[in-house]
Structure formats: C-alpha cells, structure tokens
C-alpha cells in the first residue's frame, strides 16, 4: 500500500470516527426515523471511498451532506419505483399475478436498471426506457417527447455509453 493510499485510508477512518454519528442523526431527521439511516450513512461512506481528491476537502460535514443527499435521493427514487411497480401489480388480474420468486427477480432487475441509469438526465433515461422497455422507435419517442429524432439518437448514444461504463466500473 502506497503512502498516498495509506493517508487516504487514515483520513477516511478519521472522518468515519468523527462524523458517522452526526451523519446518521442528520439522515434520521430527513427520513423521520432510523429504519434506513444507518444503511444510507454506510452507502455515503462507501461513495467517499471512491471520491477523488478527498484530501482537498476542507469542510467534511458539508461534503458528507452532499454525498448523503445523493444517497437519500437514490433511496427515495428506488422507493418510488418499487411503489409504482406494486401499484401496477395491484391493477393486474389475479391470474396474471407474480409468485414471490418472480416478484423478487423482477424487483432486482428494476434495481439493476435503476443503478445503471443513475446519473443520467431525466430526458435521456425516459428516451432509453421508452425504447428498451416499451419498444418504441426513435421516431415514436421523438414525437412523444416533442424533440427531434437526432436528439433521441444523441440521448440513446449517451444512455448506452453510460450503461457500458456502469458495467465496466462495476456499479451493478
């Protein structure tokens, strides 16, 4: 382990020791309870581990707040996705309902897709999902989104590149 890596690990350990309790408390207030605060705080520190130039941060709590807000938004987005899926399931006739195993597999697939698309602009995600999940053509997507086909082509290229990078970087 190089000196730079050792100092980085030392810095992370110091931040964890001094700020973890505070961050969990902050998240508890945002979530109105403790159920997920510990998990989200851990995710925030995992993101810190990957953050470049951590040594340059002068205000750790401000930086932690930004990282934790991202984790919080991701949590809320996943919860909204799951609720939308449950609402759609409730609308289905019973004979088309999914078994617990099928539900678990589908839920995991939705979360993987969500992680792959994390960080993309909303319009790019929308175009990608309309094409890949709904099977719409670029022309149909352009009409629905009120943009040009060339814009949809750019969106699709951006989304596909983003997904490939997510896979390479192991964000799945």
Task: Please write out the topology.
Elements: H1 3-31, H2 37-50, H3 60-91, H4 100-117, H5 122-132, H6 138-145, H7 149-169
Helix pairs in contact: 1-2, 1-3, 2-3, 3-4, 5-6, 5-7, 6-7
Distance between the termini: 27 Å
What is the averaged pLDDT score?
A: 82
Evaluate the radius of gyration.
20 Å
Query: How many strands appear in the DSSP assignment?
Result: 0
Stretches with pLDDT under 50, minimum 5 residues: none
Which of globular, elongated, flat, extended, rod-shaped describes the shape? globular
Order of helices and strands: HHHHHHH
Beta strand %: under 5%
| Number of separate domains | 2
Query: Helicity, in percent?
Result: over 70%
Based on secondary structure, the structural category is mainly alpha
Largest sheet: none
Number of helices: 7
Family: Belongs to the sigma-70 factor family. ECF subfamily.
Domain RNA polymerase sigma-70 region: 16-80
Protein name: Sigma-70 family RNA polymerase sigma factor
Keywords: Sigma factor, Transcription, Transcription regulation
Features:
172 residues; mainly alpha; Arc Repressor Mutant, subunit A; 2 domains; Sigma-70 family RNA polymerase sigma factor; RNA_pol_sigma_r3/r4-like; RNA_pol_sigma70_r2
Describe the structure.
The chain is mainly alpha-helical and 172 residues long. The protein has two domains: 1-97, no CATH class; 99-172, Winged helix-like DNA-binding domain superfamily/Winged helix DNA-binding domain (Arc Repressor Mutant, subunit A, Orthogonal Bundle). It is 77% helix and 0% strand. The protein contains seven helices and no strands. Helix 3 (60-91) crosses helix 4 (100-117) and helix 5 (122-132) packs across helix 6. The protein is globular and about 50 Å long. The mean pLDDT is 82. It comes from Methylobacillus methanolivorans. Residues 111-163 form the RNA polymerase sigma factor 70 region 4 type domain. Residues 16-80 form the RNA polymerase sigma-70 region domain.
